[in-house]
Design a protein that fits this description.
There is one protein chain. The chain is α+β, with helices and mostly antiparallel strands. The chain is built from 12 helices and 5 strands. Helix 5 crosses helix 8 and helix 7 packs across helix 10. The longest helix is centred in the middle third of the chain and has 42 residues. The chain is elongated. It starts with a helix and ends in an 11-residue tail after the last helix.
Length: 299
């Protein structure tokens, strides 16, 4: 029972308190892929700990901490005698929880695929492929650049975006969208959306959904920055900030565009800003400075 209580306490504490420190992590902008994994792992740990708390509460106390042989013996006895009412209740709770999560994920994926299919049909009528750009050009007065992920992925740019952005900026923002397609980022967004949709009363899941969406864009920016100057990416983001793409596509502009300019404007290699990934963690930064000179050399 103590193990079940510990797991239950972690579940409640993580749901209520974990979102704030994770959102305040300043290194997340420098290592968005690691931050995305952290957010999704936190969500999965909450669900897993809740299920384990329910299951552990039904296991006899003498089976915990006495080795696998004792646990297997008790499991064999329970199977031979038939599960009790508490075991059936625990299994029912776990089945309902996992079914709800799976149904939410399926609903998110199916709805997004349906909407993207309709939009692709519209693009086939209104857009024109541009082989030089590797994208579909649409006559539209609002500057937009976005992609339709999936098997038949498409990258779309409007004529207003072509007029407002320079050639190098267009190339940078198209690289951003291709990074979404190659990285299958729509599946990562679907996972975050599934947690929030399955359990809307959990604050952690709602914050995780928003943070994952923001970090996905930062990750695509980093991939585009491998071949294009960050100054061009930042300028393109400013030019696309006023555009609003449909919810079922992934666009470079939108509300988060201006907030993403700061990582590109920060000088790479500056203390606290240039490191990325695990090199940005304080322990590594301390170690990378080298051991102190001790004892001090006499002058």
């Amino acid at each position: 029972m103590t193990d079940a209580l510990i797991l239950a306490v972690y579940t409640v504490a993580a749901c209520a308190l974990l979102a704030r420190p994770l959102s305040a992590a300043r290194w997340a902008e420098r290592a968005p892929r690691l931050a995305i994994a952290m957010w999704l792992s936190a969500c999965a740990s909450v669900v897993g700990s809740a299920l384990l708390a329910v299951l552990t509460a039904t296991v006899p106390a003498d089976a915990v901490g006495h080795g696998l042989a004792r646990l297997f013996e008790l499991c064999t006895m329970m199977l031979a005698e038939g599960p009790g009412a508490s075991a059936w209740a625990a299994l029912g709770v776990c089945a309902i929880t996992l079914s709800r999560l799976a149904a939410s994920l399926a609903a998110v994926l199916v709805r997004a695929r349906r909407e993207r299919g309709r939009h692709a049909a519209m693009l086939a009528l209104l857009g024109r492929p541009d082989r030089a750009l590797g994208a579909i050009v649409v006559d539209y007065a609002e500057p937009l650049v976005y992609c339709l992920p999936g098997r038949a992925a498409k990258t779309v740019i409007t004529t207003a975006a072509l007029r407002s952005l320079s050639t190098s900026q267009v190339a940078a923002v198209l690289a951003h969208e291709r990074a979404h397609v190659r990285g299958r980022h729509h599946l990562v967004l679907a996972a975050g959306e599934a947690f929030a949709r399955a359990f809307p009363f959990v604050p952690l899941f709602d914050v995780a959904r928003r943070e994952v969406a923001r970090l996905i864009e930062l990750r695509a920016d980093d991939v585009a920055a491998r071949r294009h100057p960050r100054a061009q990416i930042a300028a393109a983001l400013v030019g696309l900030a006023t555009g609003r793409v449909p919810a079922f596509v992934m666009g470079a502009g939108g509300q988060s565009a201006l907030t993403r300019v700061r990582p590109h404007a920060a000088p790479r290699g500056a203390p606290g800003q240039g490191a990325s990934g695990w090199r940005a963690w304080p322990p590594w930064r301390c170690c990378s400075a080298g051991p102190p000179s001790w004892p001090p050399r006499p002058r």
